[in-house]
Amino acid sequence: MQNPRLEKQSLKSEEMSDEYMTLDPVGLAPRQFLFLKYREFSSAEDDGYLVFFTHDEGTGKSTVTVIDAKTMSPDSVAIVSLPQRVPHGFHAFFVTEEQIQDQAKF
């Protein structure tokens, strides 16, 4: 699967602009963007990562893609191939190791 190309998006700006985010190639469908903080007590609102699922309509393969939220660089921090297709509309959330351990007590 090719790397999705991400361009800086207007949501990072306080002012209106014509900047936007695009994903290439055609057929690569991003889903469920999630922001994860890099540092717990950072004052910068974009100090973290955007994590999202992609599904390639041509190959039927799904990935988890990670990009740097501060730079919105077109070079992904990581792309993880998944063994199964992630359905459209699938929701995800992030939990810490501590939260998992707390749930294991029940």
Could you please describe the fold and organization of this structure?
With 106 residues, this protein is mainly beta. It has one domain (10-104). Helix content is 8%, strand content 28%. The chain contains 1 helix and 4 strands. It has one helix at residues 97-104, and strands at 28-37, 48-56, 62-68, 78-81. Strands 1-2-3-4 form a 4-stranded antiparallel β-sheet, with no helix packed on it. A hairpin with a 5-residue loop joins strand 2 (48-56) and strand 3 (62-68). The termini are far apart. Mean pLDDT is 75; it is low at 7-11. This is carotenoid 9,10-dioxygenase. It catalyses: all-trans-zeaxanthin + 2 O2 = 4,9-dimethyldodeca-2,4,6,8,10-pentaenedial + 2 (3R)-hydroxy-beta-ionone.
Query: How are the strands of the biggest sheet laid out side by side?
Result: 1-2-3-4
Tally the structural domains. Answer: 1
**Principal-axes shape call:** flat
- What integer is the average pLDDT? 75
